[in-house]
Amino acid sequence: MIRARNLSRSYGGANAPVRVLRGASLELYAGEAVAVIGPSGSGKSTLLNLLNGLMAPDEGELEILGRASSQLTDNDWAQLRRRHIATLFQDGNLIPTLMVARNIAFRAGLAGLAEHDGAALMERLDIAATAGRYPDQLSGGQRQRAALACAFAMQPKLILADEPTGSLDYATTQRVTPLFFDAIRERDVGALIVTHNPELAERCDRILELREGALRPWDSALSS
Ligand SMILES: Nc1ncnc2c1ncn2[C@@H]1O[C@H](COP(=O)(O)OP(=O)(O)O)[C@@H](O)[C@H]1O
Ligand SMILES: [Mg+2]
């Protein structure tokens, strides 16, 4: 689903560039969940935005869902994001002027689905009672679960998630985590999950650490 080779990306223009990614490589296969860990500011969100085409790498090669990024136009990327690549941003996943149920229906519709399982998803994520509420009427944890429901409802091939349990309390994380993996395994979705949550990371097939701009297999023996 993802084949990335030596991705580099800087911020700050030509005069004083800050090199955030310096040769990050990774592969992700269908049905696989890979966790990305790394300190704040190490470039995790930047990496996700290269993989969903919202930013372009300065250097490196990227193949996404079998297509070379060098061949993808802005329209191609937009189409991929509508239909096949769900990004769970750290915030701002929901359209503020739409109720939760409408947000879900809208996302499924954008993905070209005539029907969706939004009601069942809300039930499973324990947010059925929020269906008729607007995003600003939800708690942080409810918003995060509504964003998950939107992502699953579009039946994506690839999920890129930035701290999907970041604003969930312990009990809710315990309940939502298995649902997250069920959705991945049931549909052979590939998932790249940025997380600080050890339990979420350990349920993934592999853990990669982003450090000094590169991705390396995380060695728990080294860090303990
Ligand atoms: N739009 C931007 N302009 C300038 N610097 C940025 C921008 N976005 C991120 N950065 C910088 O790049 C580094 C990595 O950011 P980010 O990818 O958000 O890291 P993480 O998600 O791991 O916390 C940080 O030092 C951040 O300040
Ligand atoms: Mg981030």
TrEMBL record:
Sorted alphabetically, which Gene3D superfamilies does this protein's record hold? P-loop containing nucleotide triphosphate hydrolases
GO MF entry, a single one? transmembrane transporter activity
**Which InterPro entries does the UniProt entry name for this protein?**
AAA+_ATPase (IPR003593), ABC_transporter-like_ATP-bd (IPR003439), ABC_transporter-like_CS (IPR017871), ABC_transpr_LolD-like (IPR015854), MacB-like_ATP-bd (IPR017911), P-loop_NTPase (IPR027417)
Q: Which SMART domains match?
A: AAA
Give all residue intervals belonging to the AAA+ ATPase domain.
Answer: 30-213
A single Gene Ontology CC annotation of this entry is: plasma membrane
| Entries under CDD domains matching the protein | ABC_MJ0796_LolCDE_FtsE (cd03255)
Pfam families attached to this UniProt entry? ABC_tran
Record key words, sorted: ATP-binding, Nucleotide-binding, Transport
The name under which this protein is listed is ABC transporter ATP-binding protein
The organism of origin for this protein: Microbulbifer agarilyticus
